[in-house]
Amino acid sequence: MKLQAEIGDDKHQVEIHRNGDIVTATIDGETFEAEVSQPEPNVYLIKRDGKVFEAFVVLNDRPTQATAVSVNGHDVDVKLIDPKRLRSKGSDTEHGDGLAEIRTAMPGKVVRLLVEVGALVEKGDGVLVVEAMKMQNELKSPKAGTVKTIKVSEGHTVAGGDVLATIE
Question: What pTM was estimated for this model as a whole?
Fold first, then answer.
């Protein structure tokens, strides 16, 4: 997964790959490898070069705002930007009267369906929850409308970019 990370005025290119508990991150061309585990929600243990770092992450509901991260007592606000999502976004009225697709950004497993086909949803309402890299992500409706299809069920494994549901 390729991302842009903003920390204050600094911008960094980040690429992350996960193989089990091993995470390989390339930041501005420099590669790091660490063992990462999540003993409880929003808490991560990062083991690298014989040292253990504890990271607390306070997730934000709005993707345009920074996420608060605290590593061994050092606090930093990090804004992650997925360039693929930037290319596909338009104005708030982009979907208009058409069909809006809810897609997953990365491979994972559907852990919960929050609505049924035919349900009325508002923009920003949760539709389903996907677990990826041991984190649960609620996928939200991009517009107000009716749930036309849900193409997955709980426990279903999905690939990055898969269409999981549609809103009309």
Answer: 0.48
